[in-house]
Amino acid sequence: MSALSSIDFSGFQRQGFQRFEACISQSQLIALRQVAQAFHANWQRDNLDFYQSQAVNSAYLTAPDYLDNTQRELLFQFIGSQLIKDIISPLFADCCGFLNTQLFFNPVNPDQRNYWHRDCQYHLSLAQQQAALTGPLGLHLRLALYDEPGLEFIPGSHKRWDTEMQLDVRLSQAGHTPSDDLPGGMLVPLQAGDMLLFDANMIHRGLYGMDRLALDILFCDPVPELLQFAREDCLPDTRTLESLVWPDAFTVTANMLKNCGNN
Questions:
Q1: C-alpha span between 69 and 63 (Å, rounded)
Q2: What one GO molecular function would you report for this record (predicted)?
Q3: For residue 170, what are the contacts with CB-CB under 8 A and spacing of at least 6?
């Protein structure tokens, strides 16, 4: 896996997202794909009703629930690699915390529609959502494990509030639904091995279809209001931590959870 250097983040700062093409080797892609597929199969067994009725993603891949130590080690080595450091660390003034991992897939129901949203809308009031646009930073870094339709974004919405139509659509108001098309949306398709960085608070929606299976790694400013959603069992042990090129994000989260008494 080759690291990126001298990345120009002006596109991300302006639009709220940035794609990195063909970031990893074919062998690395295959290995990560196998781990994700193993997690997905094991997760389905425990969440079959949810999976078949409405699920489009799962979470906490690095926990010991559905992967063995070797599989978890592979994920930790990827998350703590020079490549991920080069993409993530320049965007934080000081340090960042590792928040979570998620796996995105197609819904079982072919009629299930995708939906515009800001990630923060699921735990914040409208006033808090608006304040979050100038608050702590939360980032998704997506690795496409197969070719996929990608995501659609409203460029610049990580720094500005919704228009009336955008708010009505994502909140299902005034006769709108979250799957309605929005003017100004930008489609970002992904090929296997591409990575996509985006601000979690911007208006976006995943696009279903093809063999969509995407690994998202979430990072954030080291603040309790965001890291409260992290889990200690998703962090590497001391031996693994010491072997990582970039252990910092895991260490920040571990310290925050310890100080907050979140065990």
A1: 10
A2: dioxygenase activity
A3: 115, 116, 117, 118, 121, 162, 178, 203
Comparing C-alpha atoms, which of 108, 104, 89, 83 is closest to residue 22? Answer: 83
Specify whether the CB–CB gap between 185 and 154 falls below 8 A: yes
d(CA 46, CA 123): 25
Q: Which helix (H) or strand (E) holds 39?
A: helix 26-46
Q: Which residues contact 27 (CB under 8 A, 6 or more apart)?
A: none
Predicted pLDDT at 261: 65
Count of domains in the chain? Answer: 1
Q: Assign residue 124 the CATH number of its domain.
A: 2.60.120.620
Tally of CB atoms within 10 A around 64: 12
**Cross-strand pairs, 1:** none
pLDDT band at 71 (very low <50, low <70, confident <90, very high): very high
Q: Give domain status of residue 180, yes or no.
A: yes
Tell me whether strands 148-153 and 186-190 are parallel, antiparallel or unpaired: antiparallel
Q: How many other C-beta atoms lie within 10 A of the C-beta of residue 243?
A: 13
With bands split at pLDDT 50, 70 and 90, how would you rate the model's confidence at 260? confident
Among 144-158, 228-242, 249-263, the range scoring the smallest mean pLDDT is 249-263
Tokens of 30: 């295959």
Range of the domain at 145: 16-260
pTM over 0.90? The answer is: yes
Is residue 191 domain-resident?
A: yes
* Order of all β-strands in the sheet with 148-153: 186-190, 148-153, 204-206
pLDDT in tens, 156-208: 999 999 999 999 999 999 999 999 999 999 999 999 999 999 999 999 999 99
In a domain, 202, yes or no: yes
